[in-house]
Design goal:
This protein is an alpha/beta fold. It has helices spanning about 10-20, 35-45, 55-60, 70-85, 100-110, 140-155, 170, 175-185, 200-210, 230-235, 245-265, 275-285, 285-295, 300-305; strands at about 30, 50, 90, 115-120, 160-165, 190-195, 215, 240. It is built from 14 helices and eight strands.
């Protein structure tokens, strides 16, 4: 039964593994999962953790990433994903969903949902995608209050509170560095600077900030796509690939639907599909069947039924 209906690893152990990974000197790779099944695949392939993107949670609901999703929706999706994997799960908590007290409640609910950590950003609410223009950030002192509330609210000291700053695009790199230092002083375990341009900027940030750092390698954005190996050489502790799996899936879905619309059949697409047997393997069909057979392996004889009393007693 262990590892079937839920992960075998406890939330506390996953959080401890995340914190240890950040201190290991080896970059922690967290691909984004747009559903629990993708999270299982991320674990099977051998990554270090799973990321849940706020942009992806929005996109799955056919909404833009402008702060329309609620704490309840994001927490529910995070819980579904964390439930199925032994890897630590880091989730995007936007701006903390309101005032500092809301940020505190956000951490409480995410802890209860089994997440290993979250990041909270310094954008004005409603926020927008970090790689779009027209962003605005709150004063650093306001973000410090958000972070202090979040850090104070956690009950498991291994729950990672990551501070994201979007100031690079609005105030410049030096201002983003100053904010990162203030956020670390406020108790942030990990710093995520959004939309750095290239390896030089990543290196400058690492040289200036003395806490674990997270890099965002999202496609079609403002950042040069750097390899995990190079980021590790630069001294980064974690890297996320937030929307990659959704983009791969949606490209394939759109291509397939257009093929069916044009030709009236999916026969030309079969070789590009995951086979049913592979899906069943990932879902652990055989293990579920074995468990089910092991539990329901008895029969009830006619004689035993006849000897029961009216109240069901023997």
């Amino acid at each position: 039964m262990t590892g079937l209906l839920a992960a075998a690893t406890s939330a506390a152990d996953k959080r401890a593994a995340f914190r240890a990974g950040l201190a290991s000197g080896r970059i922690q790779r967290f691909p984004g999962a747009f559903n629990p099944l993708v999270a299982k695949l991320i674990q099977e392939i051998g990554f270090d953790g799973v990321y849940v993107s706020g942009a992806v949670v929005s996109a799955e609901l056919a909404l833009p990433d402008i702060g329309l999703t609620t704490l309840t929706e994001v927490t529910a999706r995070g819980q579904q994903i964390a439930r199925v994997t032994d890897l630590p799960v880091l989730i995007d908590a936007d701006t903390g969903f309101g005032e500092p007290m809301n940020a505190a409640r956000t951490v409480t609910l995410l802890e209860d949902a089994g997440l290993a950590g979250c990041h909270i950003e310094d954008q004005v609410n409603p926020k927008r995608c970090g790689h779009l223009d027209g962003k605005a950030v709150v004063p650093a002192a306001e973000m410090v209050r958000r972070l202090r509330a979040a850090v104070t609210a956690r009950r498991d000291p291994n729950f990672i509170v990551c501070a994201r700053t979007d100031a690079r695009g609005t105030e410049g790199l030096d201002a983003a560095i100053d904010r990162a230092k203030a956020y670390a002083d406020a108790g942030a375990d990990l710093i995520f600077t959004e939309a750095l341009a290239d390896a030089g900027e990543f290196a400058k940030f690492r040289a200036a900030v003395d806490v674990p750092l997270l890099a965002n390698m999202t496609e079609f954005g403002k950042s040069e796509l750097l390899s995990a190996g190079l980021l590790e050489e630069l001294g980064y502790n974690a890297v996320i690939y937030p929307v990659t799996t959704l983009r791969l899936a949606m490209f394939a879905v759109e291509r397939g639907l257009r093929e069916i619309a044009t030709t009236g059949t999916q026969s030309a697409l079969v070789e590009t599909m995951q086979h049913r047997s592979r899906l069943y393997e990932l879902l652990q069909y055989q293990q579920y069947n074995d468990f089910d057979s092991g539990i329901f392996n008895f029969t009830v004889s006619e004689r035993s039924e006849r000897t029961k009393g009216a109240d069901g007693s023997e």
